[in-house]
Specification:
The complex is a heterodimer of chains A (about 250) and B (about 260).
Chain A (H helix, E strand, L loop, with lengths): L2 E12 L2 E12 L3 E6 L5 H9 L6 E6 L2 E2 L2 H6 L6 E4 L11 H5 L10 H14 L16 H13 L5 E5 L7 H18 L2 E5 L3 H7 L2 E6 L2 E7 L9 H8 L13
Helix pairs in contact in A: 4-5
Chain B lengths: L6 H31 L6 H12 L3 H24 L7 H39 L2 H7 L4 H38 L5 H11 L2 H27 L4 H30 L4
Helix pairs in contact in B: 1-6, 2-6, 3-4, 3-6, 4-6, 4-7, 4-8, 4-9, 6-7, 6-8, 8-9
Classes of the chains: A alpha/beta (about 250), B mainly alpha (about 260).
Bound molecules: adenosine-5'-triphosphate and magnesium ion (MG).
């Protein structure tokens, strides 16, 4: 099987608090992998470890069969092959929408007129038009910021996309636009997507595969259509959104 | 009971370790900075923007403080000088005091308040809102994109600001000297020009470059390593201003005593 990303026994603690605990997961190429799990189970930390923003305590990550570590990420130019949507959008306050979207595109690769065309094109994909091109992030609503951040994540046509809760903060219709967009990018560009979400509607719509994270480890992985019949009490509780079941809300966690 | 004996040595040990750890972190940050300074790409547009923000926009603040400092210096030296009938030294001491000490130190301290604070608040906000992480995922080295232009801009700007502060400060002394203390304009100017030598001005400008580095570097360092949300942003801003100010005064003493005593 062709795996674009392999993660072996990744662990990460902050102080004496273990967040990722020997987590292993393989991501198939050109598929849409969704990761679900309760708040604080380490989903964002997992993405940050892959991206090299957090140094894991132990474990290995392979991208296209090559190990990802501090040095190798630079050598294989890892970051130019990926796009990341941060949970809080993380747009650059000091730059306008157009500059934000085309930030990662080197001036050498294209002339200036082109950058604006690219920005308009990506904006259209996320359901915005060129009237926002010269606005600053502080002048946008939360949902618009999220979409601009999404446009920025796909601007370089990456082969691997990370979406950290792409639909939170969006109305149901816009959430659906984003779901369609994610499907589109995977089909058109042949990208692989790893999406973190709490939104089961969205998960059903975009996922080829779903994994569930609990206490820093993957407790279930399967095809999206099998999630209803997983027979896993944790998964069942999560998709039903019920407060009774094996997952207990511990205020100290 | 005997446990209490250890409280003080423990506290001392802990703070010594903490200080060593911060010195180590600053040294690593400095090393990264130097590496990034000498490797492409250089963000020229960003550098120019910072020159305007750090240099040009600080002009009014620095001009005003320099003017009043020169003025008050003239008043005080007149009081002191008149106690042994040496009022005539006002022009010379204002000129030397401003160019050698007060110009660079006051400009440095004003910049620590104005620029260290804003740099650190800005970078800390970028840190807590994950904009720095976003830079990395867009193949941009935050050290090169954020830190290098700010530090370079401050190192270039502060000496220029100090030249201006020197002129305005001496002018402040001149205005007070001739308008309220009754000195004759021509002789005040002559006394000023006679006493100042190139090395007085140069020593001030070298200090200014060092202070410029301290101001921007401390702002960047504390902002970059900020943690803990909005409160963390506030904390790193305070730390930046306090550490920049103390380092300016300490390095001023060291530079003066080691290099610029004649
Ligand atoms: N930089 C950090 N320093 C200390 N602790 C951290 C840090 N980043 C994350 N954590 C801790 O790690 C745990 C997992 O955080 P993470 O952000 O991965 O959660 P999550 O699964 O993404 O949750 P959510 O769905 O709410 O976004 C949390 O308990 C958090 O307190
Ligand atoms: Mg998260």
């Amino acid at each position: 099987m062709d795996h674009i990303l392999k993660i072996n026994e990744l662990s990460k603690s902050f102080g004496d608090k273990s967040v990722l605990d020997n987590l292993s997961i393989n991501i198939e190429r050109n598929k849409s992998q969704v990761i679900i799990g309760g708040s604080g189970t380490g989903k964002s930390v997992l993405l940050k470890c892959i991206l090299g923003l957090i140094e894991p305590d132990s474990g290995e990550i392979f991208f296209n069969q090559q190990i990802l570590n501090k040095k190798n990420r630079a050598d294989i130019d890892f970051h130019s092959k990926i796009g990341m949507l941060f949970q809080g959008a993380a747009l650059f306050d000091s730059l306008n929408v157009q500059e934000n979207i085309t930030f990662g595109i080197k001036k050498l690769d294209s002339n200036h007129g082109n950058l604006i065309e690219i920005a308009v094109d990506k904006l259209k994909k996320v359901g915005l038009d060129s009237s926002v091109l010269y606005l600053y992030p502080s002048e946008l609503s939360g949902g618009m910021q999220k979409r601009v951040a999404l446009a920025r994540a796909i601007a370089r046509n990456p082969e691997l996309l990370f979406f950290d809760e792409p639909t939170t903060g969006l109305d149901p219709i816009m959430a659906d636009v984003i779901n369609n967009l994610i499907n589109e990018v995977i089909e058109e560009v042949g990208a692989t997507a790893i999406t973190i979400t709490h939104d089961m509607e969205s998960a059903k719509k975009i996922a080829d595969k779903i994994s569930m994270l609990y206490k820093g480890a993957v407790i279930w992985t399967g095809d999206a259509m099998d999630i209803k019949s997983s027979n896993n009490p944790y998964v069942d509780q999560f998709i039903k959104g019920s407060s009774d079941g094996p997952i207990k809300i511990n205020p100290n966690d | 009971m005997y446990r209490y004996i250890y409280i003080i040595p423990e506290a001392i040990g802990r703070s010594v370790l903490k200080i060593c750890a911060s010195i180590g972190r600053i040294a690593i940050f400095f090393y990264d900075f130097v590496v990034c300074l000498f490797t492409p790409p250089i963000y020229i547009k960003s550098l120019l923007g910072q020159l305007v923000r750090i240099g040009y926009n600080s002009l009014p603040v620095i001009g005003l403080t320099a003017f009043f400092t020169g003025g008050v210096l003239a008043l005080q030296i007149y009081v002191g000088g008149s106690r042994f009938n040496a009022e005539n030294i006002v022009a010379s001491i204002v000129a030397l005091g401003i160019t050698r000490e007060l110009g660079p130190v006051i400009a440095g301290l004003m910049l620590a308040g104005r620029v260290s604070a804003s740099i650190s608040a800005e970078i800390a906000t970028m840190r807590v809102t994950e904009q720095i992480d976003a830079l990395i995922t867009l193949s941009t080295n935050p050290m090169k994109y954020l830190v290098v232009p700010r530090v370079l801009a401050a190192v270039i700007s502060l000496p220029i600001l100090v030249i201006i502060a020197d002129i305005i400060g001496i002018m402040g002394g001149f205005v007070v000297g001739t308008k309220t203390l009754g000195f004759i304009e021509q002789s005040y100017i002559k006394n000023t020009l006679d006493i100042i030598e190139l090395r007085d001005v140069m020593s001030g400008l070298i200090k200014a470059a060092v202070f410029g580095f301290i101001v921007a570097f401390m702002g960047c360092y504390h902002g970059y390593n900020s943690t803990g949300g909005a409160q963390g942003v506030g904390r790193s801003t305070t730390l930046a201003v306090v550490s920049a100010s103390i380092l300016i005064l300490a390095s001023n003493y060291i530079l003066t005593s080691l290099v610029f005593t004649n």
